[in-house]
Amino acid sequence: MIAVDQRALTDVLELDAERVVARWGRASTAPFVTAEGMEVAWCGLDAVAGYARRGRWAVTVGDPVAPPGDLDDALDGYLDAVASRQLRPVFVATTEADPYRARGFTVLPVAEEATLALDGFSLEGKRRADIRHSVATAKRYGLRVVAWEPSLADGVAEVSRAWLATKRGGEMGFTLGHLSGPPPAGVVCRVVVDDAGQVLGFVTWHTFDDDNGRVVDVMRRRPDAPNPTMDFLIASSLLDFAAAGVRHASLSSVPISHGPLAERVYPAASLRHFKNKFAPQWETRWLAAPARRHLPGALRAVAHAYCPGGLGAALRQNR
């Protein structure tokens, strides 16, 4: 019998899953399928899905990643894989509803994703006038947007600490990442500095769709940074991507607002207002649970995936 190095085998499978995601991941959720803390399930020869285990729930990132035309087979394979692990799946931010309805799932609209075609992208026109004004103002302040480099690491870390000190419950998780060192492979980081070289903010972008897409992830600025800092960062990034031939970008999804309590956990209304300044297309994203009676448990599992510190911490004001 040939001895198998389980750690080496796991490393190979993880690298192979990343290859599948990089090649076939067309949705902006794809980069998170193999993110830290996710369990990967193979659901075909060239298809994978990723989930966070919360109790008996497999909180699943978007749709399975598979070659064009293979989603149905990959979805069936994933459901079999999850069942074999004695888990119940809930899908978050799927791009389609019908494949899940066809399998008896209860499907709800939970978010809208802000997407942008970058072919010919510019800041011209009435709809992006506010962004154009912010960029001009930022340049008058002497701000510059640069690529991440090691000399900026301490400044980026300080921005994160200052930003987190103003928030509740610490870092969020699941499809919301963090930056604690050099950007990993497949992640682009842009940093804004003032004329003295001080780091005022940064943003990270994941690559997807065989390097043809970018999706924003971490967006942070110093509390005392000039108001146009984040507008400037995002706009400059989009213009650079367009110039480099990237085809499309996502400003990520905004949850459908469910009132003041939900806004305390995640400020959907203000975030939508911010993203709307870039004049994106808004596309519905769905949550799929096995049956209506499972919705309360599914929603609790999703909430705990996004709030690793617990919902209580997310609801409390920082002292």
Question: With helices defined by DSSP (H or I, 4 residues minimum), what is the helix count?
Answer: 10
CATH topology of the largest domain: Aminopeptidase
* Alpha carbon gyration radius: 20 Å
Strand residues, percent = 25-35%
What does this structure look like?
Strands 1-2-3-4-11-5-10-9-8-7-6 form an eleven-stranded mixed beta sheet, sandwiched between helices. β1 and β2 form a beta hairpin. 39% of the residues are buried. By secondary structure, it is an alpha+beta fold. The protein folds into two domains: 6-113 and 285-315, Aminopeptidase; 115-282, Aminopeptidase, CATH 3.40.630. It has helices at 6-24, 71-84, 98-101, 129-140, 153-164, 229-243, 260-265, 268-276, 295-306, 311-315, and strands at 39-44, 47-54, 57-61, 88-94, 106-117, 144-147, 187-193, 199-208, 213-221, 248-255, 281-289.
